[in-house]
Structure formats: C-alpha cells, structure tokens
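hey can u check if this looks right to u? its 524 residues, i copy pasted from the old doc so theres a chance i mangled smth
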Amino acid sequence: MVINWDQPGGPSAPTEQPQVRAAQYVRMSTEHQKYSTDNQAEEIRRYAERRGYEIVQTYADEGKSGLNIGGRLGLQQLIEDVENGRANFQALLVYDVSRWGRFQDPDEAASYELRCRRAGVAVHYCAEQFENDGSIGSSIIKTVKRAMAGEYSRELSVKVFQGQANLIRLGYRQGGAAGYGLRRRLIDQNGAAKTELGRGEQKSIATDRIILIPGPAAEVAVVVQVYRWFVEDGMSEREIAGLLNQRGILSDLSRPWTRGSVHQLLINEKYIGNNVWARTSCKLKTTHVQNAPTEWIRADGAFAGIIDSALFGRAQAIIAARSDRLSDERMLEVLSEILERNGYLSGLIIDEVEAAPSSSSFRCRFGSLLRAYALIGFSPDHDYRYLEINRKLRRLHPSIVADAMAGIGRAGGHVEQDATTDLLRINDEFTTSVVVVRCFQTSAGSMRWKIRLDSTLKPDLTIAIRMDAANEHPKDYYVLPRLDMRDAVLRLSEYNGLSLDAYRFDSLAAFYRMTARVPLREAA
C-alpha cells in the first residue's frame, strides 16, 4: 500500500502496487508421488499472493522422472521461451530445488536456474526455508539440496533393484512379455490365483504378484516341436522359422518367425521354469549395458517348465558347439563381418546370421557382448541404422514435397515453396510444413513415431507423414493445425485417441480439396 501525503486535504486512498508477472514450473516424478502437481501449484499460488506475483503461465511435467531432461517437454519449452525472448513474465516460481530434477550431476540443475537468470527471469523457491537472493548462504543451501536430490535417486535405485531382485528369487515375474507358449498369471499376496493377464495388461494392486504358467496346449506343442526339430532332426533356426511360417503359425508378437526369434526361444531358461532377471540393466537413465552371467538374478525351478531340462541342455550344447571350433581371433573376425554388413550390432542381429556363433556364444567366450564389441572397435552408443534411416528419409523428402505440390496444383490451388526453409505457401493464404516421420519399434514390438513441430517458422499446418514399420512407404498422414497443437513434440502410437487421430487421414486427398480455389459470386 502507498499513501500520498502530498495531496491537499490529507492522505489519498490507498493504491495497489502493480503485480509482477510470473510463470510457474511444476513436476511430479513417477518415483516420488508425495507432491502432486496440484499440491505444488497450490503452494505456489499462496506464495504468489503473499509476494505480489501474478501467475500468467504454467509449465508442467507430470509423471516425468527428474534424472534427465529427456521427455520433459514442459522444462524444455520453458528454457526455450526464456532464452528466445518469448517469455511474457519476469519471475519463475518453483516449488522447491528438487523440482528442476534429481540429476546425478548437481551442476546440471544449477545450469537451468542460471540460464533463466541470465535471460532476466528471477527464480523463486516457494516451499524452501531460504530466500533465493544470491547470498552465499542461499548458494550453499542450494548446492547441498541439489546433491541430496541426486543422492535420493541413487539410494532409491539401489532399494528398488534389491526389492525386485528379492521378488525374482521368490519366483515372481518382473516385467516383459511372457513369450510364445507361456502366459502371465496374477496371484494375490497369499499365493491364490486370480486371473490371467493379456498382452499389455498390468496388475492394479501393489501386493499382487505375477508368475508364468504354460499357455494354450497348441502353443506348448509348437515349442516342444521346435526343440525336437533342432535337437533330434538337426534343423537350423532358419529352417525351423521357414517351416513355422509355411504352416501359418505366428510368433507371440503376431509376426512371422525369424531365425532370431526361434533362437531366442531355444536359449531362454523360462521354458524349463527358471526365473532369470538382470541380463541387462539401465540404472538411473544411463546407457543400457549387458551384464555378465555372474551378475544375473535367478531362481531355478520357479515356474512349471514346458521343456524337459535334458532336452534344453542338449539344445544349449549344440549352440555352444558352433563356436568351440573357432578361435577367439576367428570369432572376432566373424563379428567384424557382421558389423560391416549391417552397420550395427545387437544380440538379435547376431542371432539372425546363419552359420555364425550366437550372441550367447560371444557372451560366454568374451564375458559379455560389450567386451566383444570393444575388441572390434564397435560402440553400441552409436546407432548406425538410425542414421542410415534418417539419411534415406532426408533423400525421400524432396520427392514427397514435390508430390504434395503437384496434388495441390491438380486440385486447382496455387503453391510456392520457400527455397531456404521448404515451407509451402498455399494460395497466398496459409503456410504448410511437410515432415517425414521415422517409425521405430519398442522392445515389445509396438510402433512409435515422434513428430517435431517447427516452433521457429510456425507454419499454419503441418503435414506429418508417418512411415511404415520398415520406413519404406507412408503409412498414413496427419494434417495438424498449429492453433490446436499445444506441444512442440508429439509422441504417437498406433492409436492415439480422438484428440490426435481426428487429424489422421489415409491419403492427402482431403488436404488437396481444402487447397482448391472456390469461385464466389459477387454480391451487389
């Protein structure tokens, strides 16, 4: 309140100080549900009322881990708006220091606050017991709290791993599809059977557990037959895959069989009832690594097996014998040849190669696949297939744009292409961007696409062409108006609900009709 004592006749009526425009950033991680975004927003609202801030914009990341900035579109958009001068606020209100993230490097969290301050946006922590005023005391407290936030994640990771390992040792299934010939059964905390889980279904009660059980008799018979073909008839994995496909038998992912999928069926211990976990690990959002067999967590005989242990052992002996006659040098030469042909290495790629040691043979001979990779100079951090697909799609883009321009012309519309940005200006009325979206597959075999909308040129429409699973041909088209798109990055699955699939088309015919010029009669 300000009182003007210079006015004749005494003090004037009190006047309100103008409020400072502010934005708020809220985040709730999957591993820390105590503070929901609503609770954070309520505390921030009370802080703003006490301090005279007007909240004009909200950036939110709900259900996002704070271990890195990947996937946190709210924080990414916040930093982009602040640094590009689009921020219409002078302050940023955050619940506490850990909301930036639980980074393993405390300096990373500090960097985002620094980038805001350098752009002229002050950062305030609404639930902390200190003022973020740049004093030495606040700087020390923030450093300690950032380190504590990272340590919380490390300790939680250890506890979660130990808890999962204990459940594995007790014979419970942890994640992943059951596999061909097997099914997942839900049991309660007393061990009583409840129901069978379908593909993609998850348990809803924390105390429930999952075990593996034999699947339909027809599938179990196929698994047994595969082992007999391999062990007793001497058929190779590729021959078995061909025979299964000839008979119209699909894998558990409803796909044709390949050499690699047959090989995985032949080497997985779950078919003899063993519960094996932690063959690979990806702790604290770091790089996925292959663990040595001595680090695997296992419980033998946890489930009802559908393959006799002796038959399984004979299959493993045949697979191991393929590499017994090869020296270490020759095995590495074979691995180098596979890399040269494919441009990348993985267990599945190796298993698809006929007359070559399996991925498990390389793992046993050299201790791990990663060590074998290192011996030939290959780093799995660089996905050369991804780069090659991107190069192919970039080569494809000009012809797709040319086809779109031709379609607009056939519909009677007028289109011009900006030589620098490739942006299309249609009928001198609106702009359109054409993007080709690469398809990638999850570990469960589901297709995913990531669409990046141009936040710099801001076209009125974005035509997103989703490629098929092989990234060879267009699968479908999304015509996305900028006014309806709130996020700069869209992550699409095969089905996305009406909010996105309302813009999906099997062809661009509807778009071409929209660009057609319609003559209007002039009214007197």
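The first helix runs from residue 37 to 51.
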